[in-house]
Amino acid sequence: MNHRLLLGSSALAWGLILLSNPQAQAQTSTDKYYNNSQQLSLTVKDLSQEKTEAKWLVQNNIITITDIEINDTDSGLQLIIEGDRTSELQPLIFPFENTLIVEFIEARLETDFRETDISEEITAIEGVNLENGGVRITVTGKNNPPSAQIIPSDSNLVLSVTPESSVASEEGEEEAQTIELVVTANRAQEEEQKVPRSITVINRQEIEQQSKISRDLGEILPKLVPGLAPSTQTSSIFGQPLRGRNVGVLIDGVPQSTNRNAQRDLRNIDPSSIERIEILRGPSAIYGDGATGGLINIITRQAEDQPFVARTNIGFDSILTNFADSFGFNVEQYFGGKSEGLSYVFNTSYSTTGGFFDSENDRIPPDPQGQGGLADLNTFNILGKIGYDIDENQKIQFSISYYDDQQNSKYTLDPTPSGRKAEARRGLRLPNQPNTENLVLNLSYNNQSLWGSRLSSQLYYRDYSTRFFPFDLRSSAAFGNNVLQSEVQSEKIGTRFDIDSPILPDDQLNILWGLDYFHEDSSQPADIFDSQVFARSDGLVFQKTGSGFLSPPTGQDNIGLFAQLRWQPIEQFSLSGGIRQEFVDVSVNSFTTLGGNRVQGGNLNYDATLFNIGGVYAFNDNINVFANFAQGFSIADVARALRTAPNASRVTQLNPAAQKVDTYEVGIRGNWDNVQASLAYFYSYSDLGTTFDADFDIIRDPQRIQGIEGDINYDINEDWSIGGTLTWTTGWRDPEGNGDFDTPLGNTLIPPVKLTAYVENQTTDTWRNRLQFLYSGDRNPSGEGFDLDPVYSYFTADFISSLKLGNGELSVGIENLFNTFYYPNIAQIYGGRSQSAAKGMSLTVGYRFEW
Predict the structure, then answer these.
(1) 2-174 has which fold?
(2) Which of 289, 443, 602, 810 could form a disulfide with 805 if both were Cys (CB 3.0 to 4.6 A apart)?
(3) Rounded to an integer, what distance in angstroms lies between the CA atom of residue 90 and that of residue 55?
(4) Segment 262-299, tens digit of pLDDT
């Protein structure tokens, strides 16, 4: 409210200055005033003096306005004002909310007037006599105030009125055509349309919108990103591949992987702390070890351009089939700003999640498939950043991110369900329930002009742990016939730097080169529980009797050296390619397996030379095609392979081989004012893929995977938008090693066909609605193996509604709108007592406001 009063006062002062200088009126418009309003600072005393002088200038003679004519123009309309002494009319022009106000001192209208439905952008024009003298003309815009400019005329006063939308199209053309830059593809800022890869960018607005139905990234991303399998509805991404292979996750460039792969990389940050997400589909040699399927680069919240901004969000959620027992809430708070080279961000969130219930009102076990569930959680996240612009080229920034979720449930999986689906039992007594903690410290320094090059560097530290639900392994001698609960612990310190150097002027040829290094220490300790107490309680009571290591303490050092060239010989064509040399050393301490086998420690060494090359050709400003070859590299999960090693074995004898993936991709992209679309085909090959047999033992043999991905977004008009994505993937392996790829890959790697669609409508100026759909198809790879049984299709819909209310926005989100009963793909893969149904229809209500 105070901002509006200040704006109106500044505008009134500007109008009075124009009044005292008629010549300046013909050269000045209110749209120029918008850009300069903060520079106007007349005091109240000055304002009063100017107003007195203005009244003196018209000598207290009343001017009669006899007629106002409205004419259409190409840019808007003209107001032609006629009177007995029109040449002496001096207007005061200023905006207020969505209205442009034009006032005349010492004037009167012969007749008040009002006209409505002037145009799509201008809803009304009204002229009235003021009680204390003078005339006010108001021009009301649809969403924003129009602007006005005085046109010189000898006989009349002519105002050229331009709607805000037209101003944006004419004078804000540069802003309207802002080119989005991405950093993930080549570790340097690059126009998205010049990247020879399939890449999806999810901005802050989309993250906020999807968070109105779910706060789980594993559920948000598949509804927006082609190539990524549907959600598992667990804390694990096992069974949720990208292009049929493992996905790598970065948070501000810090890798979230662990060498004992816990498969929980998307449960390390809350969506409220995320500014944007860039998803690179397909492997990337430029980032080194891991990510053979692609990269998800999470970029945390940025500071606002204003000195201080505060935003608050509060809300609650519940599954409507059992409102009371599923009730949860969340609170978010953001502070951020910039002033005199200093920038800061503080964001924190806290949420509780109640029990999960399916569409038949049955409680879903909080530990589906033993992967860790999302029900009965308390989640806390905090993000802090402080940065300083040393000069116009140099910036240093420090950030801290801490995430903690803790399950606290009285329920567990029933070992003998009464029907086909998994069931929950009450009475769980487990001292330490599943939990994830992730602490990341990040110090970065950037210099945009270092001897003509650009330097980006960072030093980071990560402390991570995640605890699983206990496993009943009483029938497995390899694990000592124990009931046990394990926890992956990882501590990592690393650094990255890269230098982007021009070779030819005007960015015709650049080379990006640099180094990555990190050291990680990890282990997987396990608590062992009393088997008799567990059996007598029918799997409800866990009483600790000892501890050991499920996987041994392991150290890992990674060094990567890389160089990447970007060449644009002509405007329509660009080419990029590079090489990376990777060195990985893994050291394992001597240890005793839970089965009692003694394993002698040792060192394992890996190295790989990786290449990538790709090009983009633009037919015109709207359509381009691209082709790309990229390699990815991933070492084996050494610690996992060792936990069932035979007695008296040595680490160096096992030496599990690394995986190298070659991927070829071609695609086409279109980008028009109201349509954006892409279609791509990919093919990938690896000599040593990873699958599982019926006993969940690892199989290593050659693999081929191919697929088609597409997406489209179409703005039909200002009010309606539609769009969707397509994902089709298939794959085979060669178990005999004879070149015959005749055995289909299982459903944990190759998901069924996935289709998504949405329709979005700006129903009123303040009310927006979105309906979105997801279809996951059937797939039956057939054969004998852990994940070769068929999975069946399902179809879900979500509804999101947002209404501007007061100083904020009220939102309502409904997930699984039709209360569809279905099983997520990973639940169908596990089957049996672990086949947990999906959540029923759920409701989320929230209110966001700025202060």
Answers:
(1) Immunoglobulin-like (2.60.40)
(2) 810
(3) 11
(4) 989 999 999 999 999 999 999 876 776 678 999 999 99
